[in-house]
Amino acid sequence: MSSAVTPVASVLTAGLSKHFGAKRALDDISLRIEQGEVVAITGPSGAGKSTLARLISGLEVPTSGDLHLAGRDMRGQAPQERRVAHMFESFALYPTRTVRQNVASPLDAPGNRGRWSSAEAAQRIDDVLSLTEMAHLHERYPSQLSGGQKQRVALCRALVQDPSVFVLDEPIGHLDAKLRHRLRGEIRRRQRSMRPGTLWLTPDGLEAMAVADRVVVLIDGRIHQMGTPDEVFSRPADVQVARLIGDPSMNVLPVLWTSADRPRCQIGDADPMAASPALVELHQRHAKQGCGLLGLRPSEITVMPRAAHASVEPPAAGADCMHGAIYAVEPLGKSCIVSVDVGGQRLRARLPGAPAWQPGLPVTVFFDAARCLSFDPESGALCA
Amino acid sequence: MADVRLQQVCKSYDGRSMAVQAMDLHCPQGEMLALLGPSGCGKSSTLKMVAGIEGVTSGEILFDGVDVTRLDSASRNVAMVFEDYALYPHMSVRENIAFPLKVRRENRSVIVQKVNGLMDLLGLSAMADATVQSLSGGAQQRVSIGRALVRAPALVMFDEPLSHLDADQKVVLRTEIRRMQTTQGLTSVLVTHDQTEAMAMADRIAVMHHGVLQQVGSPQTLYAQPANRFVAGFIGDTPMNFLDAVLDDDGALRLPGLAPMAGHAVELPAGLGRPGDAVVLGIRPEDILLHQVPNGMPALQLMARFVDRECGGDRHVLRLSSEAGPLHVEVASVSQLQAGDAVVCCLPVEALHFFEVSSGRAMFARGGHLWSQR
Prior knowledge:
The structure holds 2 protein chains of 2 kinds. Chain A is an alpha+beta fold. Chain A has helices at residues 49-57, 99-104, 118-131, 147-159, 177-192, 205-211, 229-234, 239-242, 277-286, 306-309; strands at 11-20, 23-33, 38-42, 64-69, 72-73, 84-87, 165-169, 197-202, 214-219, 222-227, 251-258, 264-267, 273-274, 291-296, 301-305, 320-331, 335-342, 345-352, 362-367, 373-375. Chain B folds into 2 domains: 4-232, 3-Layer(aba) Sandwich (Rossmann fold); 238-372, CATH 2.40.50.140. Chain B is 25% helix and 30% strand. In chain B, α3 runs parallel beside α5. Chains A and B meet through α4, α5, α6, α7 and β16 of A and α6, α7, α8, β15 and β16 of B.
């Protein structure tokens, strides 16, 4: 890769791989993070998120591939020469230093010495401490802090710097909902107004979508999808991505098609159901050997008790339906998550309010085949 | 299982500051009660006192009406589920669950029957003989729940049971615990800092802050009728918006950025405050309507500007700025707004919460009869 690309990318990787013996922790990662861009890397634990962070900051050496930071080739560059502001998932605070001294530590590092006057440094420290609501605790030691407070100190210690790139490894996971919500918005705005790019690592797909300009879905060391939050949500590249993204994530149901002349669709060991023309079309286009994978969004499903709906019109003309039984109802305030057992498969729906349905109640699940996604039953890839 | 009651329970570690203050709490038989609050609110201290791990400074703890305050943990028959599972790593799933009964030298066939029943309930039968280290975090936590339930405890305590799990496993186990709670009716106390977990799993939630109980109620009650500003702000995925307002001479509500009212003026109920009084107005992000003035529905209209959007998949959070302060609005569809665009926010009066400025107390329940009389 040439470093003469303009404008210079904050992070540029090409075919970056890291193998630990036979284990491919990261495989062929090609990624470009622009200046001022926030890119979230999301994936389950063990996906390779932290390994990628450690490759960028020079704590691990890649098995193969190239890495450029702000246009500079990082081959052979020691961590302290890379100007990476790395926030560790484990916090890695100095136990014998106060909150303020911990946050100040990178400003005194050899590469930064003399860069800021003491007044400027103090101002930088004050800014990040007040951003994270930690200013009143600045004289405390790490042992006197809760997990969430320690996490904020670690975050401050990264944000206080002026690096080539920020690498934030699970920066807000231990905070309560209110602070998490405020911080992810404010940090995103702050980072987008700065020159360095930001790599934000989180196992929470929802947080990734909320905070990032682009989301990278990393699973088993490979990039499964890269796109804007809207793209990743509306067109997940495959079943594994679909199962990671959303709140709750998309239902992916294996369906079995019976009788070719008048197709009926069966889920698990439930009774086969009649299918709408739209659903039959999905089947004819994508099913293989009578098997298909159907993606249903929890917010696009309607659930009604079976006895009650007998006299009720289906929610939309041509809507498909399946029979099941309530598994659990979880109230969440403005909405609730209803889990339904359909032929041994578990399906989740997000419904308004909090219906008083008991487990075992027979229900009908309505959905619109036109809103369904279809995945290839063999490869799991999204069907066009 | 027991009916658990706390009466005027206090805890002080240093003899000066109170970690838990005069706590009155009741967990009826078969209910799951969540202790919810930010770190340092006293929820873990409360858990430890109920479990008998930590003594009380004053007050009483009753199980089925019997004072157990001075009894140790074992005599209270309390089972714990820890956030890091605390399983015996060299034992199989079956051996881990059976362990508390083996220690008690229970009859072999009774052990087999109980352990099989629990593995069935928790979906562990297929992995009965696997060592626990080979299991996912979610499965390990289910083993730990099985081990807690197998000895028929009077009370099960869940201490942040989901916090070490991956996001997807968290959602699955949350559903499993909710299901078990509704079908089995465990008497249990859940300690968590995560409002979503508390809402999803518990029958009732006790919100704590600075060692003081703020409100106890069902998830719906806490969401729709928060007793004070703290609860209102703590419960809810996208937090509630708060705006400072003042009552003017006519008893009408004034706040900066308010659009000139066409037709009806929006007033507060009589007796709520005097002219010149300040109030804090609260409204949930999903209750704010953009651009559409509902027919005949009394509503405040606030002029605002679009700042940016946070993607939430099928819901989006819009951030707006107004003269009254920043506003978060939750909408279902992707908006075409550009930064700086003017937006009219419609705040339906029936969706408003009012809080006293000094105490933060809610002035009356949302959607209460005071409004419908008007």
